[in-house]
Amino acid sequence: MYYIYQRVTEKPLALHFSLKPTQRQDVVPALFRIQNDIKNIVFADISHSSEFPPEEEILFDINACFLIESNQEHDSLQNIKIHLSTEGHNITEDYLELAQQ
Predict the structure, then answer these.
(1) In what order do the strands lie in the sheet with 77-85?
(2) pTM for the model
(3) Phi, psi of 75 (to 5 degrees)
(4) For residue 35, how many C-alpha atoms fall within 13 Å in the half-sphere facing its CB?
(5) What is the mean pLDDT of the chain?
(6) Each residue of 33-59: pLDDT tens digit?
(7) Per-residue pLDDT tens for 81-91?
(8) Are the C-beta atoms of 29 and 18 separated by less than 8 Å?
(9) By three-state DSSP, how is residue 90 classified?
(10) In 3D, which of 35, 33, 8, 28 has the Cα closest to residue 78?
C-alpha cells in the first residue's frame, strides 16, 4: 500500500485552510512550515494535475519523516516548523525485515 501526504505551497492559501471555521471543539488551527532536503526525500509537485491548480499541491512519499523543530502560537494559530528526514525509510526497512522473520 502506498500513502502520500499533501501540502499547499502558498502561505495565504494555507492560512485559509488552517483558519477555516469549524464546529468541532477538538480542532486546533495550525500552519506547518516544511524544510525539505530535495536530494534525499521523494516528493512531487502535482499542481499541473490537481483538480484545484491554485492550491499548488505537493505530495510526499510515505517514508518521509517529519521532525518538529519548533512550535509557536500566534493569535490562536500554531506555527510549527518541521523538516523532512530520511528516518522514515529506516523505520520501514526495519519493519519489513522484522515482518519477514
Answers:
(1) 30-35, 77-85, 65-74
(2) 0.63
(3) 50, 50
(4) 9
(5) 79
(6) 888 777 777 888 888 887 877 777 888
(7) 998 887 888 88
(8) yes
(9) helix
(10) 28
